[in-house]
Write a structure and sequence with these properties.
Layout (H helix, E strand, L loop, with lengths): L1 E4 L13 H16 L23 E2 L13 E7 L17 E2 L5 E2 L8 E4 L5 E4 L6 E5 L12 E2 L4 E4 L11 E6 L4 E6 L14 E3 L1 H5 L17 E3 L2 E4 L16 E5 L5 E5 L26 E3 L4 E5 L21 E6 L5 E6 L15 E7 L2 E9 L5 E5 L9 E5 L13 E5 L20 H12 L15 E3 L13 E3 L4 E7 L3 E7 L21 E3 L4 E7 L14 E7 L4 E7 L23 E4 L3 E4 L6 E6 L5 E6 L9 E5 L2 E8 L13 E6 L4
Parallel strand pairs: 1-3, 2-35, 4-9
Antiparallel strand pairs: 3-41, 5-6, 6-7, 7-8, 10-11, 11-12, 12-13, 14-15, 15-16, 16-17, 18-19, 19-20, 20-21, 22-23, 23-24, 25-26, 27-30, 28-29, 29-33, 30-32, 31-32, 33-34, 35-36, 36-37, 37-38, 39-40, 40-41
């Protein structure tokens, strides 16, 4: 094993295969190579955050396969050093990082670097075979005033077809920063692109300020890799919707990939006062805090939006809030909306669309069908024809409760996919209370009984409402992976109950409401500015801090995307690192991150809060490998081939909330032993 550390300056401041599936798999092998989403010049390499621009997180590489994956070992490690470069006077910031990056690989003619970013937006290029550092770039982001948690999930790359390949920035890397900058670097050297903005940087702040509301602009950050479509860079951004009815505007914005010039903005909330669903500019949110996906051939960017602001209370934003909680297909060159589908009307549950729509071609007896798969926190899977937005599997509007907080008019129906079935349990009652001991079970039963409970769309209340699923999913930002040969969707999911209470403002402790964690999960009640209410939220746990519903609390699920049937489910994560006793029950742990699939029929995933890296058989869900990691790898892995050897790489950084004692800064590359 080879170990490396960065050397840089400090900051300035189980299902059997049927004959039908075999036939479809053979068909899939042919259609795979006819599919433009997989026709990149380096189709076996991980060139974008989601593997390819459609975000399917699949690699056809099969050197590592079901028969030999148990031999996997650490090939090299690299410590980025970003934690050590935080000034001592700001040492508390070391706990406010999310090392959740997925590296990408550059083509050989651009150096073949493995490139990643740190939570503080430093960019590091590594030798993909040894892990040795090749170059380093730091934008020296502003660490104070503190806006939120520092994170950089990845970079994007783009080759300019109009520039000589040997010229500077003929092949560019793009990064969106925590302090609201868009940065372009030369892929070969890491040099800022001189023709992009000012010395390779564009300050996005003025473009955010140009559209109301802006009063939460300080808390707005850019953490996800930009989408790049035919020379246009598209970005979203975070927003603090717990604190303010206005939050920040959720507009999606496009910039020229050569010059950095601002091209267009699409407001994700309806503002035309002649439209019955119009909202005032005092309402924000519906932002795109997560990743997007791209179909360059169709000049489309696919955008998953969050709820309008604020979370949990919608009295100030009547109607369905049309483009919130929606999949938007936007023409990248103009910013024009081509189609959209709203997966949840008038969201008061914080069930944002948390991950990019997956653009894949499903192989059927009739041929190859281009579809969009959108995972949701609700545990539901929404599917659409890519060009029209019409549902691929039917979606029905079904009645739901509307008796929420006085003055908040809820939608009488919500969309439910007919297929696939929900990936997790939905809805809760006191009979669902669970615990290892009778004391825990009865305590959980009492908490559920004393709150409002019921089906999945049970409204918020002042007595407190138990949500199931929780605000973190179902699926979350880790999203899914799709095997185009088998037509199988893979995704991790969570099923933990959650408690949310809206408290009249005059009953909220004003002193506690000023604490940094006020209004956030596990924090004291905080005020939601402009609503007359305060907010208290937490996972519903027993007195011994186990979830109040039976395990497993997280799963990996496989879905047949031809039939819409669930193939298998397997528990995901051991509780020995979280339990007072070191008992390794596979009951599922909190997770953050996603899975990838490969041509070897193997699923790779870190993500769990138990310091392990795993591999599973995609056909059966059988666990093939479990390796101890230095800390929890709460990121999504990637894989590539270099010098005839397949590597699987993942960032291991722990998690501020799920596993705070394990914060780290290490990249690990796994491979089969050299022979």
């Amino acid at each position: 094993m080879i170990e490396h550390e960065a050397s840089t300056p400090h900051y300035k401041t189980p299902v059997s295969m049927t004959m039908k599936r075999i036939i479809l798999s053979l068909l899939g092998l042919w259609f795979l190579y006819m599919n433009p989403l997989y026709s990149d010049e380096n189709e076996s390499d991980w060139m974008q955050y989601g593997g390819h621009e459609g975000g399917g997180r699949y690699s056809p590489l099969n050197q590592i396969n079901k028969d030999n994956v148990h031999d996997l070992e650490v090939a090299w490690t690299f410590k980025t050093g970003h934690l050590d470069r935080v000034p001592e006077r700001l040492s508390f910031l070391r706990k406010l990082v999310g090392f959740q990056v997925t590296p990408i690989l550059l083509p050989d003619d651009v150096g073949g670097h493995l490139v990643l970013c740190t939570p503080f937006n430093e960019v590091i290029a590594l030798d993909p075979t040894s892990g040795e550092q090749r170059w380093f770039y730091s934008p020296e982001i502003n660490l104070m005033p503190l806006a939120g948690r520092f994170n950089c999930k990845g970079l994007s790359q783009w080759r300019d077809p109009e520039v000589n390949p040997d010229e500077l920035c003929a092949h560019s890397l793009f990064m969106a920063t925590n302090d609201k900058r868009l940065i372009a670097l030369d892929g070969r050297t890491g040099t800022p692109c001189p023709g992009f903005g000012e010395n390779g940087q564009v300050d996005v702040t003025p473009y955010i300020k140009a559209m109301e509301p802006t009063n939460q602009i300080r808390s707005s950050q850019l953490k996800s890799p930009p989408a790049v479509v035919n020379g246009v860079i598209i970005i979203g951004g975070t927003g603090n919707k717990f604190k303010d009815a206005s939050s920040i505007n959720g507009a999606v914005r496009g910039f020229d990939a050569r010059s950095g010039e601002f091209l267009w903005a699409f407001d994700t909330l309806v503002r035309d006062q002649n439209d019955p669903d119009a909202l005032p500019y005092s309402v924000g949110g519906a932002n795109v805090w997560t990743t997007m996906s791209v179909d360059s051939e169709r000049d489309l960017v696919f955008v998953p939006t969050a709820s309008a602001s604020p979370n949990f209370y919608g009295g100030l934003r009547p109607g369905d809030n049309r483009y919130a909680n929606s999949v938007l297909a936007i023409k990248a060159s103009t910013g024009e909306l081509v189609w959209h589908y709203q997966t949840l009307h008038h969201d008061i549950w914080d069930w944002d669309l948390p991950t990019h729509p997956i653009l894949v071609d499903v192989t059927t007896k009739e041929g190859s069908i281009p579809i969009v798969i959108q995972l949701g926190k609700t545990g539901m899977v929404y599917t659409f024809h890519r060009e029209t937005g019409e549902p691929y599997f039917d979606i029905e509007e079904r009645p739901v409760p509307t008796d929420g907080i006085v003055g908040d008019q809820l939608s009488p129906t919500q969309p439910f996919p007919v297929k696939p079935p929900p990936l997790i349990r939905q809805g809760i009652s006191p009979d669902d209370a669970w615990g290892v001991t009778l004391y825990e079970r009865e305590s959980c039963r009492e908490m559920i009984t004393n709150a409002r409970y019921g089906g999945m769309f049970t409204p918020m209340s002042t007595k407190g409402t138990v949500m199931y699923p929780q605000v973190g999913g179902g699926s979350n930002w880790g999203g899914g992976a799709f095997d185009p040969v088998r037509n199988i969707l893979i995704t991790p999911v969570a099923q933990v109950p959650f408690y949310v209470q809206l408290i009249p403002e005059d009953e909220v402790d004003k002193k506690l409401a000023k604490e940094p964690m006020a209004g956030n999960p596990m924090g004291p009640p905080g005020l939601i500015k402009g609503t007359g209410y305060g907010l208290f939220q937490k996972p519903l746990l027993s007195p011994l801090y186990t979830p109040c519903t039976k395990p497993p609390w997280s799963l990996i699920v496989a879905v047949d995307m031809v039939t819409g049937e669930i193939l298998w489910k397997t528990p995901f994560g051991k509780i020995d690192k979280l339990s007072p006793l070191p008992i390794g029950f596979e009951w599922g742990t909190p997770y953050a991150g996603g899975a990838i699939t490969t041509g070897g029929g193997v699923i790779f995933i870190g993500a769990s809060a138990d310091e392990r890296f795993r591999a599973f058989d995609i056909d059966t869900g059988k666990k093939l490998l479990e390796l101890k990691a230095p800390t929890s790898a709460m990121a999504t892995p990637m894989t590539y081939m270099a010098d005839g050897r397949q590597y699987v790489v993942i960032a291991t950084g722990g998690h501020m909330w799920n596993y705070p004692q394990g914060i780290s800064d290490e990249i690990i590359a796994y491979a089969l032993p050299n022979k």
